Amino acid sequence: MSTPTASVVICVYTEERWDAILRCLDGVSKQTVTPHEVFVSVDHNPEMHQRLVREVAPLHPSVNFLDASEGPRGIGTARNTGANAATAEIVAFLDDDAAPEPGWLAALITPFAQSDVLVAAGRVVPNWLGTYKAPWWFPPEYLWIVGSTWRGFGKDHSEVRNPIGASMAVRRSVLNELNGFDTSIVYCNDETDLCLRIRKAHPESRVLYAPESVINHEVPAARQNPRYFFKRCWTEGTVKGKTSEDHGRGTLMRELDYCIRYLTTGVLGSLVTLRLGRVVFLVGGFGTTLVGWIYSRTKRALAK
Are 207 and 183 in contact (CB under 8 A)? Predict the structure, then answer.
């Protein structure tokens, strides 16, 4: 089976990321494989859409700028708007604060030469703005907090449950079949929900990790502090509560394996090297996420 064509969808929502959007578009324009088409999908911000058409479209005449204002506010609506406009076999998604390396798209669509691959996951490298490296206390096991590939995500070219939403590709046919992303999930985990639905509809299908497909994902200063760390852990726990209710507790086996294999070894390794501050965040992050999950499940149970 030959390598398929790909449409690229960049989801944007705020002018605060204007410079990042320009960097993202510049990266897409320098790909070693030319996209079939490129869409910038603007989530519920008509003024920004007009500015993009006015200022950026002349610089990127092949890019299509979409006003994603129909449906609930959130990245799911932006992704679905782009996917619905796409005509290529594969739809590759990028966040607005992601800068793709030149080989990003070529590596991301390579797994689709295998007919049973319905989703591909790229590698997401954090770009720590202002510091150029992670805070001393930040455990690599928690890089999912800043939307990046974490320790324990998956082995090279291995099968994974779901990609990181900042860099992923999906067969357009399965997006159409399952009506795209769940727009009721407004913050995170809509890609997890999609992959769980894909597996249910197509049990033989695979999601493959393509580590050569690299993007650099910006991490602003506002996300480099303990307050954001624990807030994001809490949110993850509450969202996972919804996921386990919608799809069954068995869908969280990946999280259980992650806790047993990687958080445990992370704690032991930090103790051996006397990085006690990191231990606090490894254990505290787990506890906060677990309490968020319990809160979510309890709240939903009482509402029934």
Answer: no
Contact call for residues 98 and 24 (beta carbons, < 8 A): yes
Query: In the CATH scheme, what architecture does the domain 6-222 have?
Result: Alpha-Beta Complex (3.90)
> Which of 204, 207, 198, 200 shows the shortest CA–CA distance to 163?
207
- Residue 216 identity (one-letter amino acid): N
d(CA 100, CA 214): 6
Query: What are 23-57's pLDDT values in tens digits?
Result: 999 999 999 999 999 999 999 999 999 999 999 99
Q: How many CA atoms lie within 13 A of 48 on its CB side?
A: 19
Q: Which two tokens stand for residue 18?
A: 């204007």
Q: Where does residue 135 rank: exposed (0-12), middle (13-18), buried (19+ CB within 10 A)?
A: middle
Tokens of 129: 């703005």
What is the helix (H) or strand (E) element at residue 226, kind and residue range? helix 226-247
For the chain, give every domain's residue range.
6-222, 225-304
pLDDT-derived band at 302 (thresholds 50, 70, 90) equals confident
pLDDT given at position 254: 84
Terminal Cα-to-Cα distance of the chain (whole angstroms): 49
Residues 179-191: tens digit of each pLDDT? 999 998 767 789 9
pLDDT score for 40: 98
Q: What's the CA dihedral at 43, 46, 49, 54 to 10 degrees?
A: 180
